[in-house]
Design goal:
- By secondary structure, this protein is of the alpha/beta class.
- The chain has one domain: Rossmann fold (3-Layer(aba) Sandwich), CATH 3.40.50.720.
- Helix content is 40%, strand content 19%.
- The strands form four sheets. The chain has a seven-stranded parallel sheet with strand order 3-2-1-4-5-8-12, sandwiched between helices. It has a three-stranded mixed sheet with strand order 9-11-13. Strands 6-7 form a two-stranded antiparallel sheet.
- A hairpin with a 2-residue loop joins strand 6 and strand 7.
- The longest helix has 25 residues.
- The protein binds nicotinamide-adenine-dinucleotide (NAD) and sulfoquinovose-uridine-C1,5'-diphosphate.
- The site of nicotinamide-adenine-dinucleotide has 28 residues, from helix 1, helix 2, helix 6, strand 5 and strand 9.
Length: 382
């Protein structure tokens, strides 16, 4: 099967492209490389040095004999996108190609607008090219668990059945996102749902939790294939950041009380979930939603786990609560369903099993590259 991975030079996309290529899929990568540009603008760098995309793909071919087609360009450029789609003719498109940082989207008006234009227009262009020329292609779109926010009831997978004034309906689950980035994902979900309804397109929205880890079987094959690992206050996510902080002896930056609870998954499960979604496509006209995570933890729980794992390696780890730069509930109920992917056969990696191999050891290996001035958060929501 031919699969186009949009955003294939990024963290989740690179790991997914190699995984699918290794499993026998014919893979193309479409990416504007804009993420490398945003890093340069913010003066931040991935902890792990990543090679240019052309070198990464060449190394993969040298090692495995498998080719990956590359299309460098912007999803918001319809002429480019349409040309790339007609050249590659995918049967499935996996769409990771968005601005994905909540703090980035909250820097100022320009970054909020950039995030929403980049994400919403890119996805809309993709829907139009599918409608025009690839109506049977399956869109697998990366959404986020943060679309739901933290409601005081259980979170279902995309839809909820409600009885109101004696009548009953199954409706999209209410969305209460917590940043202009997370809002862009909600807007995408609505646009995709509508396109499936009116044009009969098929789509799966993967509402993914926070991804952690750097190693997959494929990215671990060679230094030139290494994946990115962000630790700065804008693009770094909590768990990855805490591991790097532990490695360099920086106190773990728990925002506020740390009782915030989030859904998480290992990058090795991200790639497997995407494959499960591709292998069992949505039906024509169906907008399918899977909650893509394996475990739920509070930020404080994670900090404690990393402290324990760090201590076992001889690191002295301090946990420090700092003023929360975000406006978000800290004490809240959180219980989300995730049975759809488990029913398709997902066998989760557990954080307790992978903390050392996939993260802490990597953080220690590259700790001399850490710029400590990038660790504390500089963006506030207020
Ligand atoms: P990333 O920033 O590492 O990768 C995104 C890639 O998309 C980059 O290579 C970037 O250059 C490319 N891109 C962005 N805008 C583009 C455009 N207009 N045209 C072409 N290419 C473009 O991000 P990631 O962590 O790999 O996240 C990938 C997707 O998964 C995002 O949609 C994100 O919202 C979602 N997601 C990520 C996480 C996580 O923890 N990393 C969790 C949940 C959901
Ligand atoms: N947090 C800390 N300390 C830190 C960093 C974060 O306590 O040093 C807290 C935040 O306040 C927040 C939680 O950890 O409560 C998660 O923050 P995060 O930066 O790890 O993740 P988030 O901003 O939610 O975004 C990440 C990805 C995004 C994806 C999302 C999935 O960047 O692309 O959509 O995770 S989810 O959280 O389920 O929405």
């Amino acid at each position: 099967m031919k699969v186009l991975v949009i955003g294939g030079d990024g963290y989740c996309g690179w790991a997914t492209a190699l995984y699918l290529s290794n499993r026998g899929y014919e893979v193309g990568i479409l990416d504007s490389l804009v993420r490398r540009h945003w890093d340069a603008q913010l003066c931040v760098e991935t902890l792990t040095p990543i090679a240019p995309i052309q070198q990464r793909i060449q190394r993969w071919k040298d090692l495995t004999g498998k080719s990956i087609d590359l299309f460098v360009g912007d999803l918001t450029d319809y002429t480019f996108l349409s040309g790339a789609m007609h050249s590659f003719e995918p049967e499935a498109v996996v769409h990771f190609g968005e601005q994905r940082s909540a703090p980035f989207s909250m820097i100022d008006r320009e970054h909020a607008v950039l995030t929403q234009v980049n994400n919403v227009v890119g996805t809309l262009n993709l829907l139009y090219v599918m409608r025009e020329s690839f109506p049977d292609c399956h869109l697998v779109k990366l959404g986020t668990m943060g679309e739901y926010g933290t409601p005081n009831i259980d979170i279902e997978e995309g839809y909820i059945t409600i009885e109101h004034n004696g009548r009953k309906d199954t409706l999209p689950y209410p969305k209460q996102p917590g940043s202009f980035y997370h809002l862009s994902k909600v807007h995408d979900s609505h646009n995709i749902h509508f396109a499936c309804k009116i044009w009969g397109l098929r789509a799966t929205d993967l509402n993914q939790g926070i991804v952690y880890g750097v190693l997959t079987d494929e990215t671990g094959m060679d230094e030139l294939l290494v994946n990115r690992l962000d630790y700065d206050g804008v693009f770094g996510t909590a768990l990855n950041r805490f591991c790097i902080q532990a490695a360099v002896g920086h106190p773990l930056t728990v925002y506020g009380s740390g009782s915030q609870t989030r859904a998480m998954l290992d990058i090795r499960d991200t790639v497997r979930c995407v494959e499960l979604a591709i292998a069992t496509p949505a039906n024509p006209g169906e907008f399918r939603v899977f909650n893509q995570f394996t475990e739920m933890f509070s930020i404080q729980d994670i900090a404690m786990m990393i402290k324990g794992a760090g201590n076992s390696l001889g690191l002295s780890v301090e946990i420090k609560s700092i003023e929360n730069p975000r406006v978000e509930a800290e004490e809240h109920y959180f219980n989300a369903k995730n049975t759809n992917l488990l029913d398709l056969g997902l066998q989760p990696h557990l954080l307790s099993d992978s903390l050392l191999d996939s993260l802490l050891n990597f953080s220690i290996k590259y700790k001399d590259r850490v710029d400590e001035s990038q660790i504390l958060p500089k963006v506030t929501w207020r």
